[in-house]
Q: What sequence folds into this?
């Protein structure tokens, strides 16, 4: 288990377009980390596009900041949101009807998905206040119910919603973008999906948040595991990938990150090696993917709703009054995304 193995894979991805063979190992994934600004929504958008090339995918935005919803809708207002579905599910019919068939076809409002079978459940700023409703109901169920089924049903409410929507739309894969805050939507997402994709920016706070995320998934004294036990043990999502984001390439060696980035990659590997039970790889370093600092290409992708795989090197785009060009290194990013999907 060494950093050199991760760096060797990175070099092969850059120089050879290396990908692993095989299909997606799980039916449902969440992009999650308990820190903002690490690239979750941009990564979710591009993963949705990559995965939907070969699978029908249901995507959901559980982040109250709604960045992924903005990328898809670009100012349009969705008719229904994930909050519309969750609130009556948790609080009962007095808070509205149980909405069904709320996912919309992405190609209807994002032309980059015209050839893909991809459906989307929009996010909602109301999810900022959602944790208080959820934990009030959980506490009530835990203290008054004689059966653990009440707690279990609440924790699996999002899973039920996503499963019903996926069945209705004929989707065989699911992808969820989560909030940098654990409480509420992120908690239910961890109960709903089989695997997590964790983006980790190359900085100190991201390493700390990686450790906190993995500890939350394993420590019985932490909130997630505590409620899982109260539900008589729900499944814990595996870690499908650790994606090192915004990695610099200022190095004397070709296709090798700079020294500072390598140090943070090593720190991240040391962190995940403390939690081997969360990985289905015998060697957790096999779960690592290095992604470069996307610079203008990443800004163009998010603001113009164009997946990185669809960007043309050298083409200019107007972004908030600035003229940005897709740099030639976008080919590297395309290879990195393909490699990421291949290890999932």
A:
């Amino acid at each position: 288990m060494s950093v050199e193995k991760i760096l060797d894979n990175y070099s092969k991805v850059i120089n050879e377009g290396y990908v692993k063979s095989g299909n997606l190992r799980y039916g449902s994934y969440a992009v999650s980390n308990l820190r903002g600004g690490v690239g979750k929504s941009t990564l979710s958008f591009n993963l949705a596009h990559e995965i939907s090339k070969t699978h029908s995918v249901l995507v959901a935005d559980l982040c109250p900041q709604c960045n992924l919803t903005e990328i898809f809708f670009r100012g349009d207002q969705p008719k229904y949101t994930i909050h519309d579905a969750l609130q009556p599910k948790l609080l009962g019919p007095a808070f509205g009807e149980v909405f069904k068939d709320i996912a919309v076809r992405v190609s209807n409002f994002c032309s980059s998905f015209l050839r893909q079978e991809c459906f989307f459940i929009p996010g909602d700023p109301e999810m900022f206040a959602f944790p208080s409703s959820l934990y009030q109901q959980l506490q009530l169920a835990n203290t008054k119910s004689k059966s653990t089924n009440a707690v279990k049903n609440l924790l699996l409410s999002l899973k039920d919603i996503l499963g019903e929507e996926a069945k209705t739309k004929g989707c065989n894969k699911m992808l969820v973008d989560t909030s940098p805050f654990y409480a509420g939507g992120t908690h239910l997402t961890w109960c709903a999906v089989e695997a997590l994709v964790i983006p980790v920016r190359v900085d100190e706070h991201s390493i700390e948040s990686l450790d906190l995320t993995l500890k939350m998934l394993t420590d019985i004294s932490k909130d997630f595991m505590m409620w899982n036990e109260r539900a008589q043990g729900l499944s814990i999502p595996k870690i499908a990938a650790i994606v090192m984001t915004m990695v610099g390439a200022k190095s004397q060696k070709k296709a090798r990150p700079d020294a500072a980035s390598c140090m943070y990659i090593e720190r991240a590997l040391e962190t995940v090696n403390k939690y081997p039970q969360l990985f289905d790889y015998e060697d957790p370093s096999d779960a690592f993917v290095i992604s470069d600092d996307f610079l203008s290409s990443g800004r163009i992708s998010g603001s113009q709703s164009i997946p990185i795989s669809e960007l043309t090197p050298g083409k200019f785009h107007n972004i908030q009054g600035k003229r940005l060009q897709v740099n030639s290194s976008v080919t590297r990013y395309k290879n990195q995304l393909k490699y990421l999907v291949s290890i999932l």
In short: DSSP finds 13 helices and ten strands in the chain. The chain has one domain: 3-343. The mean pLDDT is 89. The two ends are 19 Å apart (CA to CA).
